[in-house]
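Notes to self after the call with IL:
- keep both proteins in one doc
- input above output, always
- annotate only the second one for now

Protein 1:
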Amino acid sequence: MASGVRGLNDRQRFLDVNEEPDKLLSPLPMPVTGGKGIQSLRECVKPVLNLNLVEDLLNKVAYSLEKCKHPKDGLTQDQSAALYLYSLQTSFYTRYNGALRDEDRTKAVPFYDYYKLFMSALNKLPSIQDNVWRGVTANLSDQYSSGSIHIWHAASSCSDQVHVTDAFLDKKKHRTLFNIKCYNGKTIKNHSHYPDESETILPPGTCIRVKSQSNPA
């Protein structure tokens, strides 16, 4: 499993700002659960499995649970493994964040149980107020003009180390680097497949206000 984890661009979750829709989407549909509480990770991914949305998902879940036998920060094994599964940077991450960004809000329904587990894990982690970094290999200066306000509908991966994010960007192309003063960031270093990336997640639905721009030579 470990050798196959980096099949996609293993930094894509730090670099996909341009995939956010440039408009406010309607709220996510919340299926009636009949009082059902937070489930195990294996139970949470069953709707995704039933639709064959992610290849080899059971093995990815088993791998994540194995790596999170001794979770930190007061999380349960399933909560820690939910974050770990996200950090693996496989097609599960792509499908999950893609569903959260899709204008067709019903696309998120198969991920609802996982979303609840994922958010319960983030909510247990202390919020940090710090500068974090996120980037994209594209020029977004027109879209993110000074004073503009944006909603990032998906989970947004950042790093508290600028050199980490900057190293992911293609220096031969136009690029945009975001320096974000966050108030509700969640550090998942203790629950990540790549702890050296010092990853901070901005929860789905984070509101961003652009204070200023600079264009270094």
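Protein 2 (the one to annotate):
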Amino acid sequence: MLTDIPKYIDGAKTLYISKSNITFNNVIINDIQTSIEYIVVCQYKDDSGFYLFGCDKNFNTQTDFFYDSIDEALEDAKRLYQVQNIQWI
């Protein structure tokens, strides 16, 4: 269960967040494999767009994607992380 939801991630306000019982994906950065534990939709102040972050277990941003609308971000999360039923909180 997700109990401590950060209000901001990487300086952007957290709007939606999801945690899976399994990892959403793995990424390799600088030859180090990192698991995506959380997917988060955020928005930076004074930015009209939205970001879909893939975060590790400590909420460090590992991936980010930009969207013009929040609906686009929520919908594309299903495709990117190959999960059809994402439980957003």
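Annotation: The longest helix spans residues 70-81. The chain has one helix and seven strands.
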